[in-house]
Amino acid sequence: KRKNEQIMSLLKDFKATGKDQAMQLLESGASNLKAMQKLYEELFPFPKLSAASNDFKSMATTASNEKVAKAVISTLDQVEEVSEMTRKLEYFIILHIPKIEDGGNFGVGVQLDLVKKLGEILEASSKATEDLLGYQNARAEALGKLSLPSTSTTVTKSAGATTTDGKKEEKTSETTEEKQTSSSLGVSFESRVLAVAAVDTLYYSKARAAFQSCMLNFMSAIDFVDKNKDKLVQPKGSGGSGSSHFSMY
Description:
This protein is α+β, with helices and mostly antiparallel strands. It is built from six helices and two strands, in the order H-H-H-H-H-E-E-H. The protein has helices spanning about 1-45, 50-55, 65-95, 105-130, 135-145, 185-235, and strands at about 150-165, 165-180. A two-stranded antiparallel ribbon has the order 1-2. Helix 2 (about 50-55) packs across helix 6, helix 3 (about 65-95) packs antiparallel against helix 4 and helix 4 (about 105-130) runs antiparallel to helix 6 (about 185-235). Residues about 240-249 have low confidence and may be disordered.
């Protein structure tokens, strides 16, 4: 009996923590969305993909396109942040699902709808993360096909000894040779430059879409919780059973 009381006390603490986290997200929801919108406008300034593609051509032969790299990394951070917020909401809802009984389960249905929605958000976030992490590899492959000019240096060392007035002297010499390779400019090279720019444009587009989805998903989840928080906290009403039932998960 004592052990059962300890478990129930622990679950009660978990429920209180989950509720506090969810309410804090509600309170900070507007400011979080404003911050997301501001960052989005900074990362994705081009009104059309054609404008982005034209800009990226000038960076197609450089080791990195900082604009796209920043957009991808920042979007990955944003996806992770929204995923963490989503998990907090999911934690809150699951701990407040009561035992389903005959009748009066409308509030429980609202809870389950949100759990399903949150699960879909997390799945989409996982796919977006996996997709965006392919950027550096895709760009490296396209860049490698350019065969850009390179310089290699070879250093040759030799040692010898001479004898002067009965004294032996060690002497060393060193020669340095540089070799330069050049790429053949032409239609093929120009096409490969465009291919690198296309990779940058593609992942810029992927990052932009993922960031937009992050904002929309977070906005819709917060809005849903705000509109239904009474049913989410007390799905059976103030007079209903408040005990959670976890066997369904």
